[in-house]
Amino acid sequence: MGMRELTVVRFEEIRRLLAERRPVREIARALKCSRDTVREIRDGTTVSPAIPKALPGPLWTEAIAWGEVITELGLGHPLKFIWEEKAQSLTTYPNFWKQFYKKYPQYKQGTVTLREFEPGSRCEVDYAGDSIEWLDLKNGEIRAAWIFVGALGFSQLLFAWAADDMKSRNWLHSHRKMFESFSGVTQVTVPDCLKQGVSKCHLYDPDLNPSYSTLATHYQTAIVPARPAHPKDKAIAEGAVKILMRTFRWIHRRHTFTSITEINRALESVVDRINRKPHTRFRVSRLERFETIEKAALKPLPETPYETAEWRQAKVHPDCCIGVESAHYSVPHIHRGKQVRVKITENQVEIYLDGERIAVHARDRHRCGNRVINSEHLPPNSRAYREVTPQNLLSQSRFICSELNELIEELFAEDTMGHLRRAQGLIRTCVNEMNSTSQSEALPNIRAAIAQMKRFQKIRVAYFQDCLKQQRKKRLGSGGEQEILRLPGNPMLRYTAARAASPEQIQMKEKESV
């Protein structure tokens, strides 16, 4: 009769004998166990008694599809959200995650150290690593919206704002909206070492971007950037980004956005939901902790709102202008060839040299190469050229024809210096046309060509010359019908009266054809 109990020693002995290719009957007789036990160990259906048997979990664990839980977790969704959807009616969240980590211990996370901050002392900001895609209905393109996230240190109140890019103007505008949302300013603001905020990283004394430094001065907050490659220096912002993006993607995972405005509305609702939800450590919501304690500790907002400004470097060209955003702005001529700093605000462009403002212009937003020039910035010879040359061209066009004079006046009313060379080319073309023929023959062609340019809205010198050629051909072709003479030998050959040959030439051609 075989042994009922299978010990670890007996199990290992059976495996040793099986490895030596001993028969099953011999092993069972030697170790006084059943042949079925030996066969089960050989086939792998029986494991060693040293391995503890898995205790069955609670009954509710059998009603959960753990494979789906693993799939959702692999997509980056929080375990708590998965519990709310799949097991909230079956058990509590602590029981759920205890059973989950017991079944899948590889998903356990390491411990963390919490930091405590005084109310109103700290605010951390950062951009979310992943963007939110949205569909542009105008052209069908898929575009990206970048999410700015800010969080207070004491209450951990969240703020989020989406923009089409991460350039300096949106970076500064997001700070302004964040402080307005908090209705106050913290003593310290902690950003990451991105170029919009920090121009040069340093462990102890980093160089801030000039526009970002201006914002800090306006709001009276100290900018203390986190060290490069040290995300723990702004752990609150990192955690806020994780909580916000996971919640947002979970709620809107089946929704397609069509504008950044729609994304901002969705972000506002998600942020409000997170701020109103009870915090697991505070036992109250972030919003309640902020309103009861931290809001009163914040610095008040400045009386005047911050005006977003960008700083750039430019070099003054020999024509006394600098190029900014596809526009040209004049600078006093004594600074030609120098490097200047340009401050771009919402409504104007300011130019500085060695900390002194040397020029101010209204901002041009057309981005089509317009020139914003103050005549006082130009040297005397350029000023005289700009004043005398256009009047000289208008005077010349007045003597040619009234239509040309009206066209040049319209061009100068739009942009005098931008159309100066074009006006010179039109006048020179008209003068050449009159010199090649006569004034009486050239004027109708000039008027017709000008009318054709205006009709097609294509005021170009090369096109004007082509129009004059077309008018000359038309007038030559309409000079009266010419008599057509046909040779008697070949009636298919035609000769006009002007090109008709003499009778002797016709006879010679007939002989050649024969």
Key features of this structure:
elongated; 17 strands; 17 helices; Nucleotidyltransferase, domain 5; 6-stranded mixed beta sheet; 4-stranded antiparallel beta sheet; 6 domains; alpha+beta; 514 residues
Can you walk through the features of this model?
- This protein is α+β, with helices and mostly antiparallel strands.
- The protein folds into 6 domains: 1-53; 59-107; 122-297, Ribonuclease H-like superfamily/Ribonuclease H (Nucleotidyltransferase, domain 5); 310-378, no CATH class; 381-477; 484-513, no CATH class.
- Helices cover 43% and strands 15% of the residues.
- The protein contains 17 helices and 17 strands.
- The strands form 5 sheets. Strands 1, 2, 3, 4, 5 and 8 form a 6-stranded mixed β-sheet that branches. It has a 4-stranded antiparallel β-sheet with strand order 9-12-13-14, with no helix packed on it. Strands 10-11-15 form a 3-stranded mixed β-sheet, with no helix packed on it.
- A hairpin with a 6-residue loop joins strand 6 and strand 7.
- Helix 9 crosses helix 10 (260-276), helix 12 packs antiparallel against helix 13 (402-414) and helix 14 packs antiparallel against helix 15 (439-456).
- The protein is elongated.
- The chain starts with 7 loop residues before the first helix and ends with a helix.
- The model is unreliable at 496-500 (pLDDT under 50).
